[in-house]
Amino acid sequence: MQRKYKFSEKRLVPTDEADAPYIIYVNPEESEKRYLIDTLKFDEHTLHSALDPDELSRLEFEPEHIAIIFKRPKNYSVKDQFLFKVSSVGAFLFKDKLIVVLTEDLPLFDPLVFQRPPSPGFLMLKLIYRSIFHYLEHLKVISTISDELQFKINRAMENRHLINLFALQKSLVYYLNSINANGVLIEKLKLNAGKMGFDTTDIELVDDTLIENNQCYRQAEIYSNILASLMDARASIVSNNINVLMKTLNIITIAIMVPTFVVSAFSMNVAMPLQKHPLAFYIILGMAVLSVLSFIAFWRFKKW
Fold first, then answer.
1. Which pLDDT tens digit goes with each residue over 153-193?
2. What is the DSSP string of 120-172?
3. In this structure, are residues 104 and 75 in contact, taking their beta carbons and an 8 Å threshold?
4. What is the pTM for the complete model shown?
5. Residues 46-64, buried b or exposed e (16+ Cβ, 10 A)?
6. Domains of the chain
7. What span, in angstroms and rounded, lies between the C-alpha atoms of 23 and 4?
8. For the segment 264-302, what is each residue's pLDDT rounded down to a tens digit?
């Protein structure tokens, strides 16, 4: 699916103009891929890399354009089951236009505001800059979910809470790898600023993006370390909860067995004491109650 944009009233708005300077391809069809490869001279491997979620961020110089692949968080859905994933975005920078290729239908240009028509290079840098804040938003969500799961684990012994926690930890590993790959890409953009034709404003944005990306990486690393270090503690809590439950069940079982033994002893079909006593039933019942009270007193005395 192809979408074209132009600059109007400080924003990028959809347009049908053939020479639109900003174009987005969402999960392009085979005919669109052939157009990008045959007409616009896209490298076929690079194009497929832009649609591969496992591809690393990188910068490549082609004869007629510059290809940039960077990572951004994938939109979360319920079916992901607490696993936050990442996706690849391909930005193909020409002298007079920017073509973006991605797998998800995202409002990339909607939140962006410009005082003047952005150059293709500046817009590409802005997309990378915005992806960092997308990571930060997801990290806050992961932290909130982690706290809720920790509270549930402390109160319950269900394995699904631990499994969800493992999924969050796996997500942070993906995020750390992606943010680090983006950092390497931004460093390359800074080193090749002159070759890419960046002006002073573009270079300042590269520096700001690099700083924000490093801070984002450190924050993700802190969350990952905290989550990893507490996994053993949470597993110990679950084990302790099981021990407490087993102790309670043992107390109940023994407390039931003691009076059952007393009543069973007087229920045998042989001659038994008190069998002709008029208050035999109440005496035996009292002995059963007394046995329970004795067991409870002994249990408390031992502080079990």
1. 767 656 777 788 888 888 999 999 999 999 999 999 999 98
2. HHHHHHHHHHHHHHHHHHHHHHHHHHHHHHHHHHHH---HHHHHHHHHHHHHH
3. yes
4. 0.76
5. bbebbbeeebbbebeeeee
6. 2-240 (3.30.460.20), 241-302 (1.20.58)
7. 5
8. 766 666 566 766 777 777 777 787 888 878 877 877 777
